Structure formats: C-alpha cells, structure tokens
Hints:
Layout: E1 3-8, H1 12-24, E2 28-34, E3 45-46, H2 49-55, E4 61-64, H3 71-80, E5 84-87, H4 99-108, E6 112-114, H5 124-132, E7 136-144, H6 147-150, H7 166-179, E8 184-194, E9 202-209, E10 215-220, E11 228-235, E12 238-243, E13 248-251, E14 254-258, H8 263-277, E15 280-281, H9 285-296, E16 297-302
Parallel strand pairs: 1-2, 1-4, 2-3, 4-5, 5-6, 6-15, 7-10, 8-16
Antiparallel strand pairs: 7-11, 8-9, 9-10, 11-12, 12-13, 13-14
Helix pairs in contact: 3-4, 7-9
NADP nicotinamide-adenine-dinucleotide phosphate (NAP) binds next to helix 1.
Amino acid sequence: MTLRLAIVGLGKIARDQHVPSIAKTEGVELAAVASRNASIDGLPHFPDIDALLASGEAVDAIALCTPPQGRHAQAVAALQAGKHLLLEKPPGASVSEIEPLVTLAREKGVSLFATWHSRYAPAVEPARAFLAETEIRSVHIEWKEDVRKWHPGQAWIWEPGGLGVFDPGINALSIVTAILPSPMFLRRSDLQFPENRAAPIAADLEFTDASGLPIRAEFDWRETGGETWNIHVETARGKLTLAEGGKKLSLDGRSMVDEPDAEYAAIYRRFVELAATGAIDVDLSPLQHVADAFLLGRRHVVEAFVED
Ligand code: NAP
C-alpha cells in the first residue's frame, strides 16, 4: 500500500529535500500540503493542519516541517487523527514534550519518527563501525556556517525554542551520538548571545564520557566564505575525519567514503518501513545535549545580529 502523505509547513527544507525525496521513494506519495503561504500546483492545499484534518482528505501520514516551537500541538492533532507522523529535527521545542507523543502514538497504533537527517549521511555508519573497534583518544567537532546564507529571514530560529546556532549544531550532535560507542555528557558550555537576540550565535562545549574522553564542540554562525561541518576523531589507528556534514570520511587524509547526499531519500525509506508496522523511532539524545548546553551555559553577550 502506498502511504499518502501530507507535508505541513512548506518552507525551505520541505521544498529542498522532502518534496524531491518523496517523489523518488517507493511506497509513499505526496497527497496534500498544509501551509499558510505556500502550495504546490495540482495538490490539495490547506492553510494549516487543523483544516487538513477537518477536510477528510485521504492521508495516512504527515511530515511536520514547521519550526519546532509550534510542533507539539500539530503533532498531537496528527496522532489523535490516527496519522503516522514524521517530525523534522529537532523533534520539539523542549525535551519533555516528546514522551507524551510517544505514548499517544502507541495508543493510536501509528508510527512516530523523530528524524535526524545527518545520521543518514554516508560516512556515519562506516565511522560508527570503525570506532566500535578502535581506541578513541579525542573528538573535535567544528560546525560553522553563515547564518545569513543558510537561514535567511527565519525569525523563529532566533526566538526561544528556535535553538539559534544549535539548529545546525544539533546535526553534529546527532552524528556524534550515533558513532561513539559510549554515551557522552556535557561538562562546560559557553554561549554567545547577540545583544538583540534570544538565541545563541555561537557555542563552545566540552563533553566527556565514562572513560574521560575529551570531546570538544565549536558551533558558530558567523563563518563566511564557505561552511565547515567537520568531526575529527583522534584514534590509535590515525585521525578519522567526517567532513562536509558526513558526506566524506577519511583516515589520516586517505579517503574512505566520498558519496553524494542521499539523507532524505533514506529517511523516507525508513518512514515507509516504520509505518508498515506502526513502529516508533525516537531518540532524544541530541536534543537532551542541547538542553544541557542551555542548562550549564555561561552566557556571553556579543554584538547585535542584524540581518542585512
Ligand atoms: P522555514 O523555511 O522557515 O519553513 C518552515 C515553514 O513552516 C514556513 O515556511 C511556514 O510556512 C511554516 N510555519 C508554520 N508556522 C510557522 C511559524 N510560526 N513561523 C514560521 N513558519 C511557520 O524553515 P526550514 O528551514 O524549512 O526549517 C523547518 C524545520 O526543518 C526546522 O525544524 C529546521 O531545523 C529543520 N531543517 C531545516 C534545514 C534547512 O537547511 N533549512 C535542514 C534540515 C532540517 P507557511 O508560512 O506557508 O505556513
């Protein structure tokens, strides 16, 4: 059976990735769009999820691609209506709002998939396998990009719950939590807040694990002239580097993986698989680390961020 899916929130990621990936994936088709200001020619359109659900349009599943702050009420509405539900990352604006969604999905017998797209980057699984059998000495995450290039006009991202620089940084955390053999935890967090914004523009974090492994993460939105999305792992067998957000993997500079992006196609294949049995795939660890970064965060005020 083909899953008839509606996208809610037709913004940048829905257009760039969800729409083309759904078109390429067997077992799922785009059946409707709910978005206040955007639509797709030829598809049923509704202003929001409530109008979509009230319409009786035949959809089996919903992908929530709206900002995290408003997601919880939308997710509850989708699950109450018995729809399989895919959540863009981060799954919500708080950690604690997600568990009730898991309970509701179970009650309704539908799938809940909290996606972490970076975990589907081609270097991630080979890196996990390598590190499972190697002594790890240190980890250094550099996740730096130009907010003006990647998040133009996104007011929500600077508001509470929008995560600021953790919106991209959580992608790095989703990879590291997938490839390291032991759980990590935060020890220090320094956050730089523009004086006119409610969310940080940069973060410098120190994590460790039960063995005392040093794990440093630097997130910065003020990078210009290209982005740096790298994770370096010093090991007993050499320096393992995941570059370009996990598209490339190298050991001491020798290439091991170099493949094009196929993250969202893999996400939709997984969603089709989960929906077939009403299974749940929710891992909150990346969001938990972001919450910890705010909890332990020492706040530094830096110059105002002005978009233009
Ligand atoms: P976006 O371009 O701002 O799109 C979100 C869409 O949601 C908007 O176009 C808007 O469409 C709708 N919306 C509903 N309520 C809204 C509200 N209160 N404020 C603003 N928009 C609202 O954002 P995005 O970049 O696609 O990001 C959406 C989610 O995907 C975020 O959680 C983000 O972390 C994640 N994500 C983004 C990227 C990326 O590269 N941009 C990559 C991976 C994941 P209408 O106005 O038509 O309702």
